[in-house]
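Q: Hi! First time asking for a complex rather than a single chain. Here are the components, and I think there are three in total. Is that enough to go on?
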Amino acid sequence: MASTIIGAGITIEGEISTDEDVVVAGTVRGKLTAKEAVTIEHGATVEADVQGGSLVVGGSLTGNVTAVERVDLQSGSRVIGNLKAARVTIADGAQFKGNVDMDV
Amino acid sequence: MTQSRPQPRAPVHGRSPGETEARIARGARVRGRITGHGDLVIEGQVEGDINVRGDVTIAEGATVHSPSVGANAVTIAGTLEGNVAATGAVRLAPGARVRGDLQGTAVAIDDGARFAGRLDCEFDLPPELGGTSQGETRGRAPARR
Amino acid sequence: MASNVTIIGKTTRVRGRVHGPGDLEVQGFVDGEIVVTGDVTVALHGMVGAGIRGRRVVVRGAVKGDLVGDEAVLLEDGARVVGDVHAPRVAIGPGALVRGYVETGEGGAAPARTARVQPAVRPAVAPAAVSHTPERAPAVVASKPAAAKAVEPPARAAPAAASNSGPRRPPPLVVPVLKGAKGQIAKKRER
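A: Yes, that's all I need. Here is the structure of the assembled complex.
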């Protein structure tokens, strides 16, 4: 399935919803809802509630996360918000502040 | 072709016999209304209403000032100040300079043509964008001379 | 991975504004203004419900909004556009359907803008551009400004609409890539 890619430098202010994967290298402010995988790349800024099949965060995310399968916060990521997913990993070097709810 | 100032038919170069076509040659100048059944090729200057059943070609170097150019297909490579109401396709060649509104079954503007005016094609947008948009008043034409 | 290309995929729907440097391809639906400094392509089944501004704007899908190209606007077969079109170069292929006011050339060019979006700028484009056309009418039609235009590389348009000066202005500055030059561009805009 093709991806939606939000390139570096591009800012989207509003709501994004999609049935496919999303890779965010730029800035998203608002709301992001995807059926499949969501990747927030290193350098990206997301100020939004995020819903996805799964979520990998390498950049900055401020907002609540709901993922069907899993959430992975990579080293270098900065996440402020609540995580809700069946599986959660927070790597060494990730900065995280919020609640984790794995009771899905 | 009927014109309010009778014009001898310009010599036809390299055309197959039997084509009903009127040609206003490069140095010729017509001021008045042009109507008729056949095609019209304008290489000179025309000022006035044009209404023909056939195709109109405004050749490179030609200049037409007309409140209304009515024809089947209209091809413009020269200069036109006036509106076009075509029952066929309208095409602006790269050297065209046109100011006026264009109406036709299809309108094509080649890269390099200069144009200012309205285009009004009949079509519907997809439903997500509002579908039929009758009566929308987008865009404005510049004040005419 | 994703450099400066943004792709709004086929099943993606954006309700909001999209702006910034880089190129953008819309295969899905963007219901909001698009203002980028790179090229914008609306693919065959793509849809945009508001205005688009970019360097080159290529449309093969449906747009309900004005199209402003700093360099060119190209409407290809399959395009359906309801809105005005302004760019130094405009090409409308057979099969492209348009309903709106179309203007090419200097009168068609929009005022220079900053890298950050200035919403106030855009509405100024259309009416001001129109007010210019009458004075420019004789010049455009009669003379050969095509020569002058051919000299211009992808010129950022002069802030003509903003300044509302006399008939023909000197050719606009070629403003270099706006990446990171936000503050400077704001100054350059005032000519």
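A: Chain A has one domain: 3-98. Let me know if you'd like any chain examined more closely.
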